[in-house]
Prior knowledge:
Catalyzes the attachment of tyrosine to tRNA(Tyr) in a two-step reaction: tyrosine is first activated by ATP to form Tyr-AMP and then transferred to the acceptor end of tRNA(Tyr). The chain is an alpha/beta fold. It is built from 20 helices and 15 strands.
Amino acid sequence: MASIYAPTRSLLFTHTTKCFFRPFKPSSSPFPLHCATKTTCSTLQQQPRRNNNNNNVIGILEERGLVESITSDALRSACLTPPPLKVYCGFDPTAESLHLGNLLGLIVLSWFRRCGHRAVALIGGATARVGDPSGKSLERPELDAETLERNQMGISNTIHEILGRAQNSNLVGPDSDSSVVILNNYNWWKEFSLLDFLKRVGRFARVGSMMAKESVRKRLESEQGMSYTEFTYQLLQGYDFLHLFQNEGVSVQIGGSDQWGNITAGTELIRKILQVEGAYGLTFPLLLKNDGTKFGKSEDGAIWLSPTFLSPYKFYQYFFSVPDDDVIRFLKILTFLDIEEIVSLEGEMGKPGYVPNTAQRRLAEEVTRFVHGEDGLAEALKATEALRPGSETKLDWKTIEGIAEDVPSCSLAYDAVLNLSLVDLSVSSGLFESKSAARRLLKQGGLYLNNNRVDSESKRIEAADIVDGKVLLLSAGKKNKVLVRIA
């Protein structure tokens, strides 16, 4: 359950497909050890594709670029054989909201649900106290109990909102269960003593295999090194899988490609301790920034999934601004649109008469609807239209506040604003550097008050101009805005 770094506007999606299976190899130890053996996808793809079967979730995910690795090719047939599988994805509560880096986990869980399987979200109330070293150059700061509790509640609410809202979307099969199951691994780890851990888990772990994991190896080779606490993380997550397999009937764990080592730690523990087969792992490629680091929440500008931290309007605008080079790929991995429709949109982009940002608009609508629902999408569309200079949509205080963090703002006293000329207000608010610049744009028809074009240089601010008695919105052209809060 990885913590992922914050996004920038420039996006890069990496997809390097690998497929794995683990054949049985005799061992002299009392518990057979299965070693990972790589099999190229070209070999696996010689098998007939079954995309015409609605339950073929692996085929659907592969077609959309959402499969990086699988632990066993037997997962393909298991997905098509009753009863439905239980699939889980873990989310460590290192912040109060999920973020864009977590979105693919929810998307993949939703695809399994759409194909008749059952989804489980695991909140890492215990593992968050340790810290996942995957992709990290430094050890994660320790969180206090109060912060962890608040984070767990926030993430649980976000998952309930998103997956609960989508529970009736194209679920198939007579045994389909659309309920949202959310568990917390602290509920079983809080009973563990160190001796219990060493006896029940540690004795089955091989230090050589643990050190060979990529996430561990990189940290051990770094100047900072790795603490014993972080070193044990893969065993904690591995035991989570064993616990869910044994007690909840969960047989598949999914995660980003950086979770491969943690996921295989779980499948190996299940084989060694329970001496059974039937546990599978699947990873999907990570969404990366152009510098190769992961999306997340440790820098300014994180794309949060909770509307408390990022308004549906800003969320919508983020995806509306995706470059043409990325939009088709994002439509495939972040939406549930039919591939045929996405291919059609791609074809339209190359034709004369294509309206710019048509594909981006569809992407923004679909992702916003999935994360924020129909009401959130309606709010985003209303704000988008209302905040367009020249729009006839009436502004309200809530809509204006939706862009407050994205535009410069200032606070002025009511008496200082009332009866002040618009030209003077444009300068004192910082929209223009000089009155002459304000007058020049006004004469050109580019100065707006609350999205209404102002044609008269003598315009003064009236009480009716102050939206809900709280704010004014000044615009110079379509993009430059200043929010004036009335103190």
